[in-house]
Amino acid sequence: MKVSFIGGAGTVTGSKTLIESKGIRILIDCGQFQGIKSLRELNWEPLPILPSTIDFVLLTHGHLDHCGWLPRLVNQGFEGKIYCTNPTKEIAKLILLDSAKIQEEEAHQANEGNYSKHEVAEPLYDVTQAESTFPYFRVIKENEMVNIDPEISVVFSNAGHILGACSIAVTLEGKTLVFSGDIGRDDDVLMYAPTKPKQADYIFLESTYGNRIHPDEDVKLLLETYINTTYSKGGTVIIPSFAVERAQTIMYLLWQMKEEDKIPNIPYIIDTPMGISVLEIFQNNKKWHKLSDEDCIAMCKMFSMISDYQETIATIYDKQPKVVIAASGMITGGRVLSYLERYIGLPQTTVIIVGYQAEGTRGRKLLEGATDLKIRGKYYDVKANIVEIEGLSAHGDQTDLLNWLSTLENKPKKVFIVHGENQPADELRIKIQDKFNFDCTVPIMGQAFEL
């Protein structure tokens, strides 16, 4: 059996791990690379194997960096089955359609504005190609062993993180390989704590926050302070947010604060059509989260939900103070760019960063103190107040990752540390070796191992 790391190694995006066993090929996740240009360019490169030779894709969850390359895979000949949970299937459909629309729009704008370095800018894939992926999806229930092949079984177990996210145990050739996916937090506001593995011969563990401990901060107090301070200056609060789970968590917290009269009576706006659609997925998948029907209905009444872009324009030019939650979370695209074009240069604006920011993204640049930001070919001075609330991250920190390993009843033969930048991954490796005495490896992109 051979395992190859063709994405999500040395970086937190582009997750793709290939298992080859007795003529069967299984791809764990099929994500899109995000961030620095050298990574984004990998999205245009072919896989090291023909997509038509891949039998199965197992999706841990529906975020773009885990499912966003599926339309390319299908377009290049994949005809197998894509297994995932029901919420992941529904979220992945939304994510892929949204990604395709954004890429089409950005290609059109680049051609209209003549700021593409290519003679003709083209999307990585279009809406039709995204839709062509959907017939290949197959739903697997949580905690139920399924034989995807006579000699291969899989079990999906809750990973927290976002709706439907799972770790995946793959048993073949008498060995059990456990892929963590993205692990959520043990004390998340909306998601249940991740299920910890009991048995594993090989573990593939994410390391997004492998060298970080989330601060013990009062998230609601920080939100209250930032919103009230900005309101007192007559400014607008912009919260770039992942449309899945983070947006709903922020909505829930703001609703609680409004009920407690902690924040002002100003417009609270959700401007992410996908985020609005995710609310329906929350209501249809109640066993995956802690939010009650009553709270969800009451929470939604507080917000103006924008889906039409003309409403976005009207909101942008409305001068009254407001709080806007808009995608995307790493400011790589989406409607948040339109808000930042207008507001990033105003000192009374506050931008609240609430999730992981990959290397090379606009969100990371803002956190690192960028004085200007390039949006759609034009530079904008950064005069807004840029703040971060780490306590709202959907990723487990180093303590959560170590805790996830703590209930293993056997010593795994090896732990592969993936889906992290080099320093976090290596620091997590050292911690795991010191705490558990497990053999750990941080693979690099393109590396393969025989198991």
Task: Detail the topology: elements first, then pairings.
Elements lengths: L1 E6 L8 E6 L2 E5 L8 H4 L15 E3 L5 H4 L2 H6 L5 E4 L1 H28 L13 H5 L5 E3 L6 E4 L2 E7 L7 E7 L2 E5 L22 E5 L12 H14 L4 E4 L5 H14 L8 E4 L1 H12 L8 H9 L2 E2 L3 H8 L6 E4 L9 H8 L6 E4 L8 H6 L4 E4 L2 E4 L3 E4 L9 H7 L9 E5 L3 H15 L3 E2 L6 E3 L1
Parallel strand pairs: 3-4, 4-5, 5-6, 10-11, 11-20, 12-15, 12-16, 13-14, 13-15, 16-19, 20-21
Antiparallel strand pairs: 1-2, 1-22, 2-3, 7-8, 8-9, 9-10, 17-18
Helix pairs in contact: 4-8, 7-9
Shape, please?
Answer: globular
Helix fraction by DSSP (H/I, runs of at least 4) = 25-40%
Low confidence ranges: none
Number of strands: 22
Strand content: 15-25%
Oligomerization status of the protein chains: single chain
Q: State the helix count.
A: 14
How are the strands of the largest sheet arranged?
6-5-4-3-2-1-22
Radius of gyration: 21 Å
Largest sheet: 7 strands, mixed
Overall average pLDDT: 94
| Alpha-beta content class | alpha/beta
For the record, give the distance between the C-alpha atoms at the N and C termini, rounded to a whole number.
5 Å
Please characterize this protein's 3D structure.
The chain starts with a strand and ends with a strand. The model has no long low-confidence stretch (mean pLDDT 94). The longest helix is centred in the first third of the chain and has 28 residues, at 86-113. 31% of the residues lie in helices and 21% in strands. With 451 residues, it is an alpha/beta fold. The strands form four sheets. Strands 6-5-4-3-2-1-22 form a seven-stranded mixed beta sheet. It has 14 helices and 22 strands. Strand 9 (166-172) and strand 10 form a beta hairpin. It has helices at residues 37-40, 64-67, 70-75, 86-113, 127-131, 219-232, 246-259, 273-284, 293-301, 309-316, 336-343, 362-367, 398-404, 422-436, and strands at 2-7, 16-21, 24-28, 56-58, 81-84, 137-139, 146-149, 152-158, 166-172, 175-179, 202-206, 237-240, 268-271, 304-305, 323-326, 350-353, 372-375, 378-381, 385-388, 414-418, 440-441, 448-450.
